[in-house]
Amino acid sequence: MSVVALKSRPAESPKPEAKVMALPAPPKSRLAIRRILSDIAGRVLPPAVVLVVLLAIWQVAFSGQTSGLPTPSTVWTESADLILDPFYVYGTQDIGLGWRVLTSLERVAYGFGLAAVVGVLVGAILGQSALMMRGFDPIFQVLRTVPPLAWLPISLAAFMDSRPSAIFVIFITAIWPIIINTAAGVRAIPQDYRNVAAVLRLNQIEFFWKIMVPSAAPYIFSGLRIGVGLSWLAIVAAEMLTGGVGIGFFIWDAWNSSRLTDIIVALVYIGITGFVLDRLVGWIGTVVSRGTAT
Question: Entry's InterPro entries (predicted)?
């Protein structure tokens, strides 16, 4: 009987395992830069496109010879010096629009700053008492509807000088929304916060800074944003009558000299400055209230 020897197959060598190679991730800094650029483009491009379209419509609509208003190209041709060099000084009255805006802003800083301090304090006091609020609110609602220029003759008679008169007009125009909004914010403070203040035995100053201001910040800064806008409107109107070197008097003087292109450039300066003031107060409110005031 023959014996057949069975040969075992040689052991197969293990196949190498397939490895998945991960693609190198882009640096975080590059992703952050792309995100920032995308955010900037999303904020800048839409208004830029709208501005270009409006300028094109303006150019086409008023390009006729019988048009009474200048086109954008005419404004650039005749008033390019005001745009390109806003801080020139050729004399006491012949200065750039940048200096005129700063002069007006100085008056706004005095008037609005005083209105902010007084308005917040008075509003905080009135907000603590429903009886006082009912007594003063009708008076405030009547006074806040008085146009800014209506206060100018009274301020000129009281101060006998154009500079403090303009500051007073700013103050009396801006203070009402600050008082009303602050009082509303104080009255909206939850009762639980007041109970905590009573348990901790906070005095009036501590209650004001630790409870009242953080809780009423959205209302307070809403009033401040309205007030700063009214202040900028008031100073431009007041300077048209009181004179000086402010941006308001420049517009009136340009009108008397039939320089319409200069007026248009000044209006752009006024609008941009008002926009910056509003955003600045809003940013301060966001920082103070930690994002609750927008």
Answer: MetI-like, MetI-like_sf, NtrB
Q: How does pLDDT run across 96-147, given as a tens digit for each residue?
A: 888 999 999 999 999 999 999 999 999 988 888 888 888 888 898 899 889 8
In 3D, which of 123, 124, 174, 137 has the Cα closest to residue 281? 174
Phi–psi pair at 95, nearest 5 degrees: -130, 165
**What is the third-level CATH fold of 84-290?**
MetI-like fold (1.10.3720)
The pLDDT of residue 25: 54
> CA 268, CA 83: separation in Å to the nearest integer?
10
Residue 292 CB neighbour total at 10 angstroms: 13
The predicted model scores a pTM of 0.78
Cα 56 off chain centre by: 28
**pLDDT tens per residue across span 199-233:** 888 787 887 777 887 888 889 999 999 999 999 99
What pLDDT sits at residue 45? 85
